[in-house]
Amino acid sequence: MEHDHFFQEVKQMVADYLSARIQLLKYDIYEKSAKLSATLFSSLVIAMLASMMLLFLSLALGFYLGSVFDSYGTGFLVVTGIYLAMLLPFILFRKSWIEKTIIDRIIEQLTEKEEDEK
């Protein structure tokens, strides 16, 4: 009889422990998801603002070069050529530069708390 009571208590303690671990895991997932979402959102805002700045700087450069060459078409063609020259390395090395960097940062965000606990 006493053994049955002991095993019931142990069974209840294990069930409570597993329930607490599952709840802790859920909270950990919520926290990591929130951090990742916040990082992605702030990166998106920065990228949008940088894109707008780049657009207006490109327009200004295009008009300036157009006045230098006495042809706005030529000025904007030169700006397009500059962007094409900058785009080619990114296309060629996107897996090793861009994708690897993004993957590394996401993994860093997801494993940040685990490193803090150690």
Descriptive report:
The two termini are 44 Å apart. The relative contact order is 0.07. The longest helix has 68 residues. By secondary structure, this protein is mainly alpha-helical. Helix 1 packs antiparallel against helix 2 and helix 1 runs antiparallel to helix 3. The chain is built from 3 helices and no strands. It has one domain.
Topology, pairings included?
Elements: H1 2-69, H2 72-92, H3 95-117
Helix pairs in contact: 1-2, 1-3
Structural descriptors:
118 residues; mainly alpha; 0% strand
Summarize the structure.
Helix content is 95%, strand content 0%. The mean pLDDT is 88.
**What does the radius of gyration come to?**
28 Å
* Count of strand segments: 0
Largest sheet features: none
Number of helices: 3
Shape: rod-shaped
Helix and strand content put the structural class at mainly alpha
Beta percentage is under 5%
**Percent range of helical residues:** over 70%
Distance between the termini: 44 Å
Number of domains: 1
- The sequence of SSEs as H and E is HHH
Average pLDDT level: 88
Low-confidence stretches: none
